[in-house]
Amino acid sequence: MGRDISKSIVLLFFGVIICCVIYPFVLWVVGQVVCPFEANGSMLKGPDGNVVGSLLIAQPFTKDEYFQPRPSAASYDASASASSTLSANNYALRDRVAHTLGPMAAYRNGKPVAPDIEAWLREDKFQGSPHIVAQWADLHNGSAQGWVKADATHGAYVDEWAKAHNAEVAKWIKENPGTPKPAAADLAVLFFESFSKENPGTFPAGVTRKGADGKDVTTIEPVKEGADIESTFFDMWRQDHPDADLQDVPGDLVTTSGSGLDPHITLQNAQYQLERVASKWASDLKRDPGAVKKEISQILEAATEAPWYGVAGEPFVNVLKVNLELRKKYGAMP
């Protein structure tokens, strides 16, 4: 018995040494010698020499000067890889897709849809009835509450509104006795209904101005144009204009990947975003949009890859890699 135990202990010892020490060490050495870049996470450095991300994991880019990755159900968190699992008839999917498309949708002739969405909102009629913003809040309670929760300034704005509308809030509490002390999000629909009547044809959004101390100060004000309007009301505008002949969009522009971390987008997706990216850089740099667009097209062409050297699959580009090339060519944004 003792002999068997001693043999087992020796076997366990050598098994641990081989599998937990020698084998990992050999793999580490091979990785550092043969492919150190890949073995260390495929990390890329910016112009300043600091690591900015990995070629293998997507990260968000929100500025118009840069190409944007696929939407992520995991919020680009590598520790929480996940797909959206939303079905095609799920409102949450439709709402997210509409928010993405609003600022970038275009007609077949290339004309952007955004100005027409803003003009439609100013007319303040949806399917023949007035007060578009109030109708939006009534139809999309979750989205209205989401707007309030999205930013601390939004909640503070609704709180200030509640103080100035005691009678309306008191009536709401009477009709909802289960919520005697409503939070800002609880009053979201009531707020938007009141806002729509008091500020027809507008939507509350952040406006940034210089304060007395020279610093930027953002306040919520009624606005008649901007990305908030274009994204929030694209779906309702589309319902009011079912015959509008719009361009098709690449599927990966509005759908998440299985992991939520896909660092690539199709070349078609990148080309769809090209007009926005080139126009913004041209505006920032005070250069000819056509010349800038040509330069960025060349960057995309140089960065294009394809599975099996183009034998199978769609051509694609790595978003981080392309955006770094833009940063190197044009410098930091003004």
The H/E string reads HHEEHHEEHHHHHEEHHHEHHEH
The total count of helices amounts to 15
Count of individual beta strands? 8
Global shape: globular
Strand content: 5-15%
Radius of gyration: 26 Å
Could you describe the largest sheet, including whether it forms a barrel? 2 strands, antiparallel
Adjacency order of strands in the biggest sheet: 1-2
Average pLDDT across residues?
A: 90
Could you give the distance between the termini? 78 Å
Low-confidence stretches at least 5 residues in length (pLDDT < 50)? Answer: none
Keywords:
single chain, about 325 residues, mainly alpha, two-stranded antiparallel ribbon, two-stranded antiparallel sheet, 15 helices, 8 strands, globular
Set out the fold topology.
Layout (H helix, E strand, L loop, with lengths): L1 H33 L1 H4 L3 E3 L5 E4 L36 H11 L12 H10 L1 E2 L2 E2 L1 H8 L1 H10 L1 H13 L1 H10 L12 H11 L4 E8 L5 E8 L3 H6 L1 H7 L10 H4 L9 E3 H19 L3 H15 L12 E3 H12 L4
Helix pairs in contact: 5-6, 5-9, 6-7, 13-14, 14-15
